Amino acid sequence: MRGLWTTARVRAAEERVMAAVPPGALMRRAAFGVAVVAAELLAGRRRVGLLVGAGNNGGDALWAGYHLRKRGVTVTAVLLEPSRAHAEGLAAFRRAGGRVVDRLGPVDLVVDGIVGLSARGPLRPDAAAHVAGLDAPVLAVDLPSGVDPDTGHVAGPAVRAHTTVTFGCLKPVHALADCGDVRLVDIGLADALPGPDLLELDPADVGAAWPVPGPDSDKYTQGVTGVAAGSSTYPGAAVLATGASLLSTSGLVRYAGPAAEAVRAHWPEAICTGSITDAGRVQAWVVGPGLGTGLGSEQVLRTVLEAGVPVCADADAITMLANNPDLWDARDPDTPLVLTPHDREYERLAGPVGEDRVAAARRAADKFGAVVLLKGHATVIASPDGRTLVNRAGNSWAATAGSGDVLSGVLGSLLAAGLDPALAAACATRVHTLAAALAADGAPIPASALLHALPDAIRTTRTP
Ligand SMILES: NC(=O)C1=CN([C@@H]2O[C@H](COP(=O)(O)OP(=O)(O)OC[C@H]3O[C@@H](n4cnc5c(N)ncnc54)[C@H](OP(=O)(O)O)[C@@H]3O)[C@@H](O)[C@H]2O)[C@@H](O)CC1
Ligand SMILES: Nc1ncnc2c1ncn2[C@@H]1O[C@H](COP(=O)(O)OP(=O)(O)O)[C@@H](O)[C@H]1O
Ligand SMILES: [K+]
């Protein structure tokens, strides 16, 4: 499990540590770390260009330039605001033989020291002009300039980093935006940091949490998943969600709804019935994918919410809850509910997502007293108890019709197994992401291919 800390808390920790170490010590450690990674990326090549902004991020770049000069690398620097460039860093850089230039010529690596934790908004025009002309890989100092450190939002021109070297701890940007390969350099902040603001699961965390049958298990003890999804118009959603539940658990999966024939044809092991009223007992429900939003579907949703077991409400279930707030009354507030909206569904439910997806997920989790899984390339999972988990897909192969149905099926089986709902949501998201990468392997895939990669994805998390 990796923690991520917002800039306000990083700054507070830095201040505490800075008071206890010699002046400039933190920057020296940070810059040395940048130089080590730069040397590794250079792999024997010898030309580095620095883009240097007005603050300490530029200072890091200049000191890294100093260390690279000491290793015999040719280093040139563009100072975006010469009068505000970090004075000691610039003096050291020049002393070591670094040259200040107006524009970077041909180089093998660019070090982005334009802006770091104080970044606000996209790159300003002069910085953007220097970045636009780059054709060498970029090593970003702390974060790619132009990307918001706390939200990962990119509102205009920004650096695209091959690698990012960050210091002391990870920040939200590193899980929410594309920072390339992220390297963490220890500058001695750990003891000064409070608990993290965000968490990101490692595959091993997922493997450790995944329910597996033991000697005393049978099909009932592992939790029975109920799937209330699909319609005569959209039977595929039911097939995908039920299949995903079946492939995520060794326990039993029941399907209830008008797509029973289609589900049975694809998944003979599912127990299928045409109506929610004779579905039998389950330990969690998945409701919504392809269900429709008519009166009959509202009744299905009401029945599920009244069942007193954890519920994953997806797709049409979310739309119904948004259109008809009376449906909330059917819910037992003490029973876990996980809402899995994409941005448009979120908007129906709780207004525009806005630039800060973490804040949006937390708002809705508070408002509804539910775990909210806000889907996207970076998925944010907020629990009403304040925990927030993030998962960055790293590839976009899952952006295909029906892949959300697969996610809700996986999540339902983890809820039925009794996992904490926020952990269940984060594990399901992570495995979904891994399955997409494994299935795609560089080429587009339909959601059914993602579905069939679930066992391999789960296996990956369980392999030490
Ligand atoms: N504190 C520590 O102990 C350590 C800190 N360390 C390092 O310090 C970094 C933080 O440094 P920092 O706070 O000096 O500011 P920084 O991010 O360099 O910004 C400078 C100025 O840029 C400007 N600017 C803003 N937005 C912009 C944009 N979009 N496009 C262009 N320019 C923009 C804005 O100037 P303005 O013109 O608005 O006054 C802002 O004030 C941190 O990320 C890490 O690298 C490490 O050495 C480890 C120890
Ligand atoms: N650009 C993207 N990169 C990675 N994953 C994505 C991207 N866009 C969507 N996804 C993932 O794909 C799934 C899509 O779900 P959803 O929008 O509900 O699709 P559908 O309703 O067609 O099943 C979600 O798990 C989401 O996180
Ligand atoms: K930077």
Automatic annotation (TrEMBL):
SUPFAM superfamilies associated with the record: Ribokinase-like (SSF53613), YjeF N-terminal domain-like (SSF64153)
Q: What does this protein do?
A: Catalyzes the dehydration of the S-form of NAD(P)HX at the expense of ADP, which is converted to AMP. Together with NAD(P)HX epimerase, which catalyzes the epimerization of the S- and R-forms, the enzyme allows the repair of both epimers of NAD(P)HX, a damaged form of NAD(P)H that is a result of enzymatic or heat-dependent hydration. Catalyzes the epimerization of the S- and R-forms of NAD(P)HX, a damaged form of NAD(P)H that is a result of enzymatic or heat-dependent hydration. This is a prerequisite for the S-specific NAD(P)H-hydrate dehydratase to allow the repair of both epimers of NAD(P)HX.
Q: Residue ranges of the YjeF C-terminal domain?
A: 202-461
Which parts of the sequence belong to the YjeF N-terminal domain? Answer: 10-195
| Annotated CDD domains | YXKO-related
Give the highest taxon in the source lineage.
Bacteria
| Cofactor descriptive note | Binds 1 potassium ion per subunit.
UniProt catalytic activity: (6S)-NADHX + ADP = AMP + phosphate + NADH + H(+); (6R)-NADPHX = (6S)-NADPHX; (6R)-NADHX = (6S)-NADHX; (6S)-NADPHX + ADP = AMP + phosphate + NADPH + H(+)
Signal peptide start-end? none
| Assigned EC number | 4.2.1.136, 5.1.99.6
Extract the InterPro entries matched here.
Carbohydrate_kinase_pred_CS, CARKD, Nnr, Ribokinase-like, YjeF_N_dom, YjeF_N_dom_sf
Q: Where does AMP bind?
A: 375-379, 404
Lineage from the top down? Bacteria, Bacillati, Actinomycetota, Actinomycetes, Pseudonocardiales
Annotated K(+) binding sites: 57, 112, 145
What is this protein's name?
Bifunctional NAD(P)H-hydrate repair enzyme
Assembly: Homotetramer.
The entry assigns this protein to a family as follows: Belongs to the NnrE/AIBP family. In the N-terminal section; belongs to the NnrE/AIBP family.
Q: Which UniProt keywords apply?
A: ATP-binding, Isomerase, Lyase, Metal-binding, Multifunctional enzyme, NAD, NADP, Nucleotide-binding, Potassium
Q: In which organism is this protein found?
A: Saccharothrix longispora
Q: Where does (6S)-NADPHX bind?
A: 56-60, 116-122, 142, 237, 290, 342, 405
Query: Which cofactors are named for this entry?
Result: Mg(2+); K(+)
